[in-house]
């Protein structure tokens, strides 16, 4: 049963494979990340890909595997929905609907996702300004859904040494102006696993409310985004490294919150 807040005092980690590959593997990942404190299992069943020849996702079968992993572990599920037509199906299985970077300005998808009533994880488009991101959030709000989590996942700049440029300042700014939970996705920003823990730490320091991170038991064999996926040991060491930073965040939030009520987007998910 899911019952926790994103954007409140707790730092919320969402972790899992880029693509859902098979049920056994997904459940193993879910158990592992859950033991290290993750609250939400991420995994793509419908995949937007840079090449039309790449794996496009398992679709409904993948959603069923995600539901099975939730059943086994109690983790909430976040997964991407790519088309307006798929919204009812994905909303039936997912606790949070992910709108991918490539879809951030797909208004009919945003409207349909908003109307599903599920919380929305809105990823910043790779060439979207902060104003563009907030416009998309506004469209979701104006369709009656206030449960929005913003996600910084790196933007395109002239720099090509990394897959994208992680906009830490964007996180800090969004926390000041948007009054919505903001999470950091260091995996898609970095594009290389060696950089992921550092970007995660910068995300925490910038004020992010949580992380979205790609984890795979054998990244070299992953069906998508293997180069940026952490294996189990790397995920564990990242989580240990982040511990004191998260504690620091918690301590400063407690000071800020003295006398204030509960904050954040409260999640009671598809299973609850
Ligand atoms: C993903 O989360 O696997 C993904 C495709 O992300 P983005 O939309 O940020 O590229
Ligand atoms: Mn990915």
Which series of helices and strands comes N to C? EEHEHEHEHEHEHEHHEHE
Q: Roughly how much helix do the residues carry, as a percent range? A: 25-40%
Alpha carbon gyration radius: 17 Å
Query: How would a textbook summarize the main sheet?
Result: 8 strands, parallel, barrel
Describe the structure.
With 272 residues, the protein is α/β, with parallel strands linked by helices. It is 40% helix and 15% strand. The protein contains nine helices and ten strands. The strands form two sheets. Strands 2-3-4-5-6-7-8-9 form an eight-stranded parallel barrel, surrounded by seven helices. A two-stranded antiparallel sheet has the order 1-10. The chain is globular and about 45 Å long. The protein starts with a strand and ends in a 5-residue tail after the last strand. The structure holds phosphoenolpyruvate (PEP) and manganese (II) ion.
Summarize this structure briefly.
By secondary structure, this protein is α/β, with parallel strands linked by helices.
Give the helices and strands, then pairings.
Elements: E1 4-6, E2 12-16, H1 23-35, E3 40-42, H2 60-73, E4 76-80, H3 87-93, E5 96-99, H4 107-115, E6 120-123, H5 130-142, E7 148-152, H6 168-177, E8 182-184, H7 186-190, H8 196-206, E9 210-214, H9 232-257, E10 265-267
Parallel strand pairs: 2-3, 2-9, 3-4, 4-5, 5-6, 6-7, 7-8, 8-9
Antiparallel strand pairs: 1-10
Manganese (II) ion (MN) binds next to loops.
Index terms:
272 residues, binds phosphoenolpyruvate, binds manganese (II) ion, alpha/beta, single chain, two-stranded antiparallel sheet, globular, eight-stranded parallel β-barrel, 40% helix
């Amino acid at each position: 049963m899911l019952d926790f807040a994103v954007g409140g005092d707790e730092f919320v980690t969402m972790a899992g494979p880029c693509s859902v590959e098979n049920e056994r593997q997904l459940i193993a990942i879910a158990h592992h990340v859950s033991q290290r404190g993750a609250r939400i299992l991420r995994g793509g069943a419908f995949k937007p890909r840079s090449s039309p020849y790449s794996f496009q996702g398992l679709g409904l079968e993948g959603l069923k595997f995600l539901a099975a992993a939730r059943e086994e572990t109690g983790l909430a599920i976040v997964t991407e929905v790519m088309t307006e037509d798929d919204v009812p199906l994905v909303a039936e299985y997912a606790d949070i609907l992910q709108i991918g970077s490539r879809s951030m300005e797909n208004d009919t998808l945003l409207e349909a996702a908003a109307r599903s009533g599920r919380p929305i994880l809105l990823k910043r488009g790779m060439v979207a300004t902060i104003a563009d991101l907030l416009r998309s959030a506004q469209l979701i709000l104006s369709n009656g859904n206030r449960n929005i989590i913003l996600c910084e996942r790196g933007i395109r700049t002239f720099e090509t040494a990394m897959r994208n440029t992680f906009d830490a300042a964007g996180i800090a700014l969004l926390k000041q102006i948007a009054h919505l939970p903001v999470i950091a996705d260091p995996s898609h920003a970095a594009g290389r696993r060696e950089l992921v823990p550092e970007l995660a730490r910068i995300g925490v320091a910038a004020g992010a409310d949580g992380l979205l991170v790609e984890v795979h038991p054998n990244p070299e064999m992953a069906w998508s985004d293997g180069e940026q996926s952490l294996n189990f040991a790397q995920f564990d060491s990242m989580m240990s490294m982040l511990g004191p930073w998260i504690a620091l965040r918690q301590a400063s939030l407690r000071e800020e919150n003295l006398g204030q009520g509960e904050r954040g987007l409260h999640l009671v998910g598809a299973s609850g």
